[in-house]
Amino acid sequence: MFRTRMDTAAAFIRERTDIRPEIALVLGSGLGPLADQVEGIAIPYSEIPDFPVSTAPGHEGRLILGRLFGRDCVVMQGRVHLYEGYSPQDVAFPVAVMAALGAKTIVLTNAAGGMNPDYAVGDLVVIEDHLSLAVASGLDPLLGPNDPKLGPRFVSMNRAYDPDLVALAERIGGLRRGTYAHVAGPSFEPPALIRLLRSAGCDLVGMSTVPEVIMARHMGLRVLALSAVTNIAVASVADTHVTNEDEVWKAAKALQPKLLALMQALIPALPEVTE
Ligand code: HPA
């Protein structure tokens, strides 16, 4: 049962450290080095009971608990994705464990393709809404029996991205806000799909984050999600550019100092949640 597995994993982690995190942080493709700033302990996912193990390149697969910019945090250095063959429940499981550890706010990061013509590679964007083709096609992590001890059967996705935290990222980081289109991958989107997503008002496209956001909202966490624009999505077959992993890694690596500076300003400014 999901809750039993969650409790077992959380109990295992609690045995390893006295840190009781208030903030959870998920570091996406190529963004993991931020975890080096954490003063604390690192536990490989492979050691945690039932934790899914990252197989994607650039995802170190370690859970780090400690102080980051003055706050007690639990940090996922790398995540897992649907395209690795994990179920939506597996993909969202680590978020449930971090909530069980006591996290009240979650900050998710990802690498994304930019679709909004005003975006450039290297931009950081704060997500205010999503459109998930994967979830809409039946890959919702909440499918199946509901456990009311974890959260409600039906979860609203309106304002899932906490409006106060979106405003904070705009104010402190000078970020623009955007809508994130979620696809299962691993194939990159064909130009026709990019045109469809653009016409639906989406600004960014990526293969992660949304299942985690759904679980986080189910369990009552406040969500802040940030996209790093690592490439410009190709919207026409007349464009000869071939989207590839290399450009994503290179751009994510180049973005690390910018993300670090943003987090250094943002994390201390996150409101403390007491209830
Ligand atoms: N598409 C999907 N996922 C991505 C992209 C993209 O263009 N860039 C980084 N992750």
Description:
Strands 5-8-7-6-9 form a five-stranded mixed barrel. The radius of gyration is 17 Å and the shape is globular. The protein is α/β, with parallel strands linked by helices. A hairpin with a 2-residue loop joins strand 3 and strand 4 (71-77). The two termini are 27 Å apart. Helix content is 31%, strand content 24%. The protein has one domain: Rossmann fold (3-Layer(aba) Sandwich), CATH 3.40.50.1580. The protein is built from seven helices and nine strands; from the N terminus they run H-E-E-E-E-H-E-E-H-H-E-H-E-H-E-H. Bound molecules: hypoxanthine (HPA). Residues 111-113, 188-189, 205-207, 230-231, 233, 243, 248 line the site of hypoxanthine (HPA).
The count of helical stretches stands at: 7
Name every ligand kind in the structure. hypoxanthine
In sequence order, what are the helices and strands, one letter per element? HEEEEHEEHHEHEHEH
**CA radius of gyration:** 17 Å
Spatial separation of the terminal alpha carbons: 27 Å
